[in-house]
Amino acid sequence: MKRIKLTVAYDGTNYHGWQVQPTGITIEEVLNKALTELTGEPVTVIGASRTDSGVHSLGNVAVFDTTTKIPPQKLSYALNQRLPDDIVVQDSCEVAPDFHPRRCESRKTYEYKILNRTFPLPLHRHDCYFTYRRLDVEKMRQAASYLAGEHDFKSFCSAHSQADTTVRTIYSLTVAKEQDLITIRVTGSGFLYNMVRIIAGTLLQAGMGELQPEQLPDILSACDRSRAGPTAPAHGLTMIGIDFSMGIFENKP
Q1: pLDDT at position 212
Q2: What is the dihedral of CA 86, 90, 241, 38, to 10 degrees?
Q3: How many angstroms separate the CA atoms of 14 and 2, rounded?
Q4: pLDDT over threshold 70, residue 252
Q5: How large is the average pLDDT for residues 108-135?
Q6: Given a cut of 50, is residue 246 above it in pLDDT?
Q7: Rounded to whole angstroms, how far apart are CA atoms 233 and 18?
Q8: How far apart are CA 223 and CA 225, in angstroms?
Q9: Cβ contacts of residue 29 below 8 Å, gap of 6+?
Q10: Is 65 one of the catalytic residues?
Q11: Rg of the chain over CA atoms, in angstroms?
Q12: pLDDT at residue 159 in the model
């Protein structure tokens, strides 16, 4: 038996999130089915991040156990032949049997994209949130600066969260603009349920002048979800990747 790590990119538009559920087809469900057919064994993957319905990924991570004789590095090629065009495995490799993508230290990076112009662009309808309201990017940057570091992010956590603690560390949070596209990029030790989308919604409010950047410390200290901005729509969010300290997890010859 060996444990295989997959790096998975997907367009989440047509899926009800990552995790298997009765209400609709999910990324995890499609992977399980394809791997079961490929290996001839019942396979259930373990995902690093259970992204929500409509959220995209360039590099989510999943592991599964198998006795297949297909070389680990070749599994991605074989698996992609069985997957739909909107799910593509970018890499496959063998890792240590005890490597668990949700139980080891990692840095996760997400981007939230906002198309800020008079009219929407059809090519960005699935991966950007569109608003015609003029956004003050400098105020968004100022607001973002208050969120870096270790804080109690209870104000930025959905009421449905079941986390044991709402303290998280944000290593970097930037707001960049290139022509009509604004990108909020955040890297952290981990994120609460809907945390990145609530951060995006709050920074949007700052950009629209609906709150001042100097209010962010009070919003944080309130530990009250109603004090932060709205939860931004899912389709603007993309998981960029997960950085593991893989030196102690890789199964090297």
Answers
A1: 97
A2: 70
A3: 32
A4: no
A5: 97
A6: no
A7: 17
A8: 7
A9: 20
A10: no
A11: 19
A12: 78
